[in-house]
Amino acid sequence: MNSTNAGQNHYDVVILGAGYAGLMAALHLRGRKGPRRIALVNGEDQFVERSRLQESISKPVAARIPSIAALVAGTGIDFIRGDVAELDAEARRVRIVTASVERSVTFDRAMYALGSRTDVETVPGVDAYAYRLDPGDGLRSATALRAALNENARRPLRIIVVGGGVTAIEAAGEIKARWPQAEALGAFAPTDPEAVEPAFEIAEAAQGAGNAKEGKAALESAKAEVEKLVKNGQNPYTLYIAFGRDRIIPSQE
What we know:
The protein has helices at 3-8, 20-31, 68-72, 126-129, 142-151, 166-178, 197-205, 218-231; strands at 10-16, 38-42, 77-81, 83-88, 93-97, 102-112, 116-118, 130-131, 157-162, 183-188, 237-242, 246-248. The protein is an alpha/beta fold. Strand 2 (38-42), helix 3 (68-72) and strand 3 form a beta-alpha-beta unit. The longest helix is centred in the C-terminal third of the chain and has 14 residues, at 218-231. The protein starts with a helix and ends in a 5-residue tail after the last strand.
């Protein structure tokens, strides 16, 4: 790397992640006119308002910040769209994979703000059966959940929300308001993930094309409820929604 490229790829501050914390930190630092060069790294250009994702269950939600690059244009903040492949703290270097190339940038200071995502790996069955409030059009995203709810609105529909935090409760409320005929079994406080495994077995027994995640009391109340229906020959279309436990996004993702 020649000296010109080295200068272009060196920043006073590199911020990894452009969620609430990362984006606000970049704008705050730039507003203070402190660091001369700031890089903001994020995998997507659209800003994800995670506190509003539960609203997208009932209807599409227009992005209020459709482009991070456009938002920071002219502020002196360099927006780099790409995934963080490696963070070398000792060398003060970040390796970033973009859509077309791989590049490395060096820094004086770095802020790690990549956030977290719903853990679908710890509990067997979560990945296959649980919807998450993920943005985009993935198979288990909020968009996919909305499609499943609309498609099965005329069928016996019961929702098991496993979680118990504010977002889980708000999601249950959104579903009940939009699909009043649906039976929401409740929002449950997250506990030992191993206690959730029987919930997935119930989903299979009930032939639920469902989705779910961790938490417990889903077992105690939902388990007895669903098993009774199965025993009586009723196979409700059961949807599981995953909340509760997050996994910090490692730098290589």
